[in-house]
Design goal:
- The chain is built from 18 helices and 25 strands.
- With 607 residues, it is an alpha/beta fold.
- The strands form 7 sheets. The chain has an 8-stranded mixed β-sheet with strand order 9-10-11-8-12-13-7-14.
- It starts with a helix and ends in a 24-residue tail after the last helix.
Length: 607
């Protein structure tokens, strides 16, 4: 009998995915709640489209019968009148009938989604309709997200939430925190962010401010004894007297959370936290259930590391799952003046590679976003090797680190972009490696079978002498007789004919300027997405060193700095050597020696 009861309870918990309560009602026993509805035209209403010539402006027109109406921001119109009528009826009856009120508490504890859609309100000052306080009516992706959160809490495990902007993730987390502390005894929920204002400035734009807003719009009998600005509501600290539940704010300053324990931790915009590894160590003993919620911020942080861990539970809230957003609304957002590829990749596309701050080439486009925009990363015949065309290489030599070679062909520009340029520079192949001799590189180059026109390399490193008084350039062009044994390839190889390395003396700024000019020309540069992944990743992530602006709290490039020397710099230098030699407009005539050409000149100037 006991085993049967336990099995029934287990079955009930499995059936109700919106609750943590062992005695929760089944979802079939909880009333269905009216949700939102998309608004379709009957004919003659006003709707909005993108202007034909200006893709950053919407224009009004008369709607056709049956089409879904759109707001000025081009998102679909929706309404929730039936939901508001439902809420009003529930609260009216609960105000006078104690038994009905108790039943509502059971429904709410049995379903997080029922509670939100019946009793919660949210604040959004950006709505084109002028409304600011609106019913919290969940979209399908938010209900799926709620299930994901609750599953993690049941198992007391952590998770990563990768999100686009304006997906309601912060409001959903705040609602979950409030639900936990008013319907469950003893829960402590922490919200962590970078600044005190973002954690708790008492306004709805802060994390604890959202919690207060949600609590303040609940009926008195559901607040668990909480009163705003009382002893149970102080700065960075909210207490529910009847359950003992607490919501607390902490700052991500490296020692956050060492002094306490909690049930749940929400870390807001974790990808932008300074010293994120140190913060992770500091909160490691705080709780086993931590949620890291953020848009991407490049690859140099702990969030990216977590995103690459296959064992880390992940929730992805991409704008394409939002039922009110559509291609035209996103195109309007994408064409706003403040948007560049880095910002769009971070705030909308959940793209770690293209969201690196202070990129050297911020105009490099990895994906199509608007009509008539040239995308540099491509598939198809244009970026494939053409047997009828000569091949160039750009080479960056590694004395103690990696060597990188890019393979380039000059092709006729697609006709739609022929007004901008007649030729397209195509990077169609790459080679990369460490601990490889010059003879092995020579073999790898000749084994490709390409018909080479020229090889352009780094004259500064290429002419540096080794212990045998030789150099990369000398070894490339020397005559060899017969095969040699390659330890790395573990076989005898014939390095093939000599390779003549060309180069040019210049300062460090000019090659970058040449590549930037090429990127900014529609049709100027195309890279094979499949064959050149490291080159694409380098274009997306090569950046200047950054420092945090104390006013804006954003990462900005250090003035007059040089691009970072890292794994991304090798393919970037290899291509820059070739671009500067082949199409650079500047030739040094100041008498500088070729071995001073490089990316370490102190006179580097930012564009």
């Amino acid at each position: 009998m006991f085993l049967r009861m336990m099995n029934n309870k287990k079955k009930k918990r499995q059936m109700n995915m919106f609750s943590l309560w062992d005695d929760a009602l089944s979802l079939e026993s909880i009333p269905a709640i009216p949700s939102y509805e998309l608004v379709s035209a009957t004919g003659g209403e006003t709707t909005y489209d993108l202007e034909t010539r200006r893709s950053h402006i919407s224009q009004s027109r008369e709607a056709l019968p049956g089409e879904v109406l759109r707001q000025p921001n081009l998102r679909f119109c929706h309404r929730w009148e039936k939901n508001i009528e439902w809420r009003a009826a529930i609260q009216t009856e609960a105000a006078t009938k104690l038994e009905f009120r108790e039943l509502q508490l059971v429904f709410c504890k049995s379903s997080f989604i029922y509670w939100i859609n019946t009793f919660c309100w949210t604040y959004n000052p950006r709505l084109p309709t002028g409304e600011m306080i609106i019913p919290f009516v969940t979209y399908p992706y938010q209900e799926q997200a709620a299930t994901w959160f609750l599953n993690r809490i049941k198992r007391m495990e952590s998770g990563l939430v990768e999100k686009s902007r304006e997906m309601g993730a912060s409001w959903l987390a705040a609602a979950l925190a409030v639900w936990l502390v008013i319907f469950h005894s003893g829960y402590v929920v922490y919200f962590m962010s970078m600044t005190e204002d973002s954690v708790d400035n008492r306004a709805p734009d802060s994390l604890l401010g959202k919690c207060r807003f949600l609590l303040g719009y609940l009926p008195d009998w559901m607040r668990g004894g909480w009163q705003e600005r009382s002893a149970s509501d102080v700065h960075m600290h909210i207490v529910i007297p009847e359950t003992g539940g607490m919501i607390r704010g902490i700052l991500s300053k490296g020692t956050a959370g060492r002094s306490g324990r909690s049930g749940i931790l929400f870390a807001d915009e974790f990808a932008f936290v300074e010293d994120s590894e140190k913060v992770l160590r500091a909160i490691s003993a705080l709780t086993n259930c931590k949620f890291f919620i953020s848009t991407p911020n490049g690859m140099g942080n702990s969030q990216y590391v977590m995103s690459q861990n296959p064992d880390m539970p992940k929730l992805r809230l991409h704008y394409k799952s939002h039922p009110l957003k559509n291609p035209e609304s996103q195109r309007l957002d994408r064409n706003q003046p403040e948007m560049n590829e880095q910002t769009w990749a971070s705030e909308q596309e959940i793209d770690y590679h293209a969201s690196t701050p202070s990129r050297v080439y911020p105009n490099f486009l990895s994906f199509e976003d608007v009509d008539a925009t040239w995308v540099h990363v491509q598939d198809g015949p244009l970026v494939e090797y053409d047997h009828d065309l000569d091949v160039d290489t750009g080479q960056d030599y590694g004395m103690a680190d990696a060597t990188f070679i890019v393979f380039i062909q000059i092709k006729t520009t697609p006709i739609f972009y022929s007004r901008s340029t007649r030729t397209t520079v195509v990077i169609f192949d790459e080679l990369y490696g460490t601990d490889t001799t010059v003879d092995e590189w020579r073999y790898l180059l000749n084994a490709k079978g390409y018909r080479y026109r020229r090889h352009v390399g780094d004259l500064r490193t290429g002419n540096q002498s080794d212990s045998l008084k030789s150099s990369w350039i000398m070894n490339f062009r020397r005559t060899l007789h017969g095969p040699i044994y390659s330890r790395k390839l573990r076989m005898s190889i014939d390095p093939g004919p000599p390779i003549i390395i060309m180069g040019k003396r210049n300062n460090a700024f000019r090659p970058i300027q040449t590549v930037q000019r090429l990127i900014s020309t529609p049709g100027g540069l195309a890279i094979n997405a499949k064959a050149c992944p490291r080159t694409v990743e380098a274009f997306q992530n090569w950046a200047y060193p950054t420092q945090r602006n104390p006013v804006t709290a954003k990462e900005e490039a250090i003035p007059n700095s040089e691009p970072q020397h890292d794994g991304y710099s090798h393919p970037m230098k290899a291509f820059a050597y070739w671009a500067d030699f082949t199409m650079g407009r500047y030739t040094s005539d100041d008498g500088k020696r070729p071995d001073l050409w490089g990316f370490e000149t102190p006179r580097l100037i930012r564009l």
